[in-house]
Protein: Ribulokinase
Amino acid sequence: MSKYAIGIDYGTLSVRALLVNIETGEEVAASIYEYPHGVMEEHIPTGKKLPVGWALQDPQDYLEGLLVTVRDVVSRNKILPGEVVGIGLDFTSSTVIPVKADKTPVCHLPEFKDEPHAYVKLWKHHGAEEEAKLMNEVAVARNEEWLPTYGGKISSEWMYPKIYETLRHAPEVYEAADRFMEAGDWIIWQMTGVETRSACCAGYKAYYHHENGYPSKEFFKAVDPRMENIVADKLDAPIKGVGEKAGHLTASMAREMGLMEGIPVATCIIDAHASLPGCGIGEPGKMMIIVGTSSVHMMLGEKEVAIKGSSGTVKDGIMPGYFGYEAGQSCVGDHFAWFVENCVPESYEQEARVRGISIHQLLSEKLSTYKAGASGLLALDWFNGVRTPLMDFNLNGLIMGMNLLTKPEEIYLSLIEATAYGTRMIIEGFEEAGLEVKDITLSGGIPIKNEMLVQVYSDVCNRKIKVVDSTQSSALGAAILGAAAAPERITGFKNANEAAKKLGKVKDKVWEPNQDNVEIYNELYEEYKTLHTYFGTGINDVMKHLNNIRERRK
Structure:
């Protein structure tokens, strides 16, 4: 019998199951299920309209996707149920779901089907900006000791502001919910029948500390007296580290998935974080950057340090035995997509159609002989707000330097360069905190498809760069953690770190910086930092004023 692990990767629009042979590392089969409800940004299924900045989902899509994709990869490849030795799962985060004690989502209760706050609040739900601001003011005033390790600022994308938003605007949902959970933990609960919380999700998105636990009752009471006992009443469950086993597959779920009862199920990990083991990283000094709709920058280390504007420092949060550090950018692939969908002329569209290539490929080709700085353009990568280092989602993108000779491909390149400048700022923040970045690996579909982007990152950051050798690194990482959840006598892996080193995949090619471009990009980066300070730190709040005017006129 062969030995397989299944990685289940929950993304923003779909879920993917990946079947991996843990003896050979072969990615045997994958199956994708697109959520029927997608991302609900304008209205919920009843037709009720949503405010600007909202992003909800229906949890039924998650369950159906789990069953459909796993059954597909197992049955299509005629895998015997006993050959699957472990299951791992990653999920977008902080994606928050209110549920009853019997696991029923509150939005599935008849009395709440027309209440938006009862649905899943997706990671990019930005309806809780005011709540994040209020919570941050309390944390700063109280000098909460956990705040510096999360970049010194509470993000509206994290768990508590989303829960507080529900309490303030739909208190009946808050009261009805026996639990507020990360959606990934909820799926693990569905599979194992055991309620646990992932140290990854709790650590990065709910300020859980391995020694001190969650923030204190006093903090929550200072925010709102109704939240004083939120941990005991709504959150309390065993915390499991990444690389640990969360439980075993129940008989009922095994039947529906076409698997064997009792298969070990690994603790959930955040989707971006799963790419780190997928890239074969199991030790400190190596930064992994997953470049997707947004970007996440991660490293392992042996000490607990605070990084300005980071998303947290969590023990056993990415791989066992180390602290995991996370930073990020809110808009990367999203603003490349925005540009090609809204700003490319019909002549370019027609040329791409005739040649049978994508607009991204066409623009990259037109830039093949381009020299850094030749366009005179400079952009800020804030089209969806800023994570690291400012942690401010009320900021906007900017492109400057355009004239009547500016070409579409030059604007496209300026957006890529902007994300590279943002990444360089993050790298410098890590090193200022005492974490040497010895090695960089890019993950995700974008760097695999776009070598021009990889070269720009190498030139801007003046670093050698490697690229993952899998189009589904998060699913691969989840499968690796699934294998690690099984006993060593079955898999041969002592721990998740060892499994990652054997099963993770990186291309042989190494991208090296072009020193002529490096010199120019150093100049442009200084100008980027000037704009970053001017528009991002309160010297000029024009972006926020424009946002306020827009909201008033809607």
